[in-house]
Amino acid sequence: MTYSVAVSGASGYAGGEILRLLAAHPDIEIRTVTAHSNAGQPLVQHQPHLRSLAHLTLQDTTPDILAGHDIVVLALPHGQSGQYTDALGDVPLVIDAGADHRLTSRDAWDAFYGGTFHDPWTYGVPELLVDGEKQREHLRGATRIAAPGCNASTVSLSLAPGVAAGVIDPGDIVSVLAVGPSGAGKSLKTNLLASEVLGTANPYAVGGTHRHIPEIRQALAAASGAEGEGIRISFTPVIVPMSRGILATSTAPIVAGVSDADIRAAWQNAYGDETFVQLLPEGVFPRTADVLGANTALIGLAIDRAANRVTVVTAVDNLVKGTAGAAIQSMNIALGLPEDRALSVNGVAP
User: Fold this and answer.
1) Catalytic pick among 43, 150, 233, 270
2) In which residue ranges of the chain is pLDDT below 70?
3) Roughly how many angstroms between the first and final C-alpha of the chain, as a whole number?
């Protein structure tokens, strides 16, 4: 069976990456692409690397144009998806790459985003541990999927095994992330200009203000089977001069009485059979260069007994495993297709 797809926000970075991956999907027909200010223009004018889709023209983003497809993927800025999802009730599968349907807590939404709160959808990170099982079990047959925030899923995948196994204390997590500016979208912003990014590292959303914090707390609370109040995280992202990629370094205290073997076993048991989340050998740590273009999260684990903390270093491509790849992997599961269809573990080098 071939599924027809409409992709909104198709002129942006996330929309472009979704289209790049879907273009190689044998079960997908990309029928419609939409945008706002760029409507009426050829898709390749804004995504010149997508040569196989040169026949497509960007249309207006309206419920009428998005309706009538088997699948709709919304790659819109935060706060803009909800106005369309409410009107797409007849579409069999809708995937939101924005934040509108990620959070289960209205209070968290009001505190970090504001605006209209929308009901949470099935979270699109298949490998996450949720109450003793993987999130993919909740994605089977799902009709509404919330693709993750790239920083949030990276930190959550980094720490969920340790939280679920009870080998680390989630009440004192510290995460510092080096991130590429493509994660902030394609809109023109002074702090994202090349002259502002090249040759420097710029922290942002410092001091507990980043919007992905409640999403991380929500995911780790689900992994622990406890309330989110027990999850405390100091989260600091830093923009660095690479177009894409995240390198997340997260630490948490070791629970008393836990052995080094117990700690490593927690991550090995969680990801030993996974294709797209891989624990590296002891003493080996990933680079962002190793995951560019791939749907992989590579994890390095260190046990710092002097500080009594576990250090987890995780690399992802923010536009693939962080966004578009997670969305398509979740789509495959929901449709009963092979989970790895149109997705690769192989990156691009140099």
Assistant:
1) 150
2) 227-228
3) 37
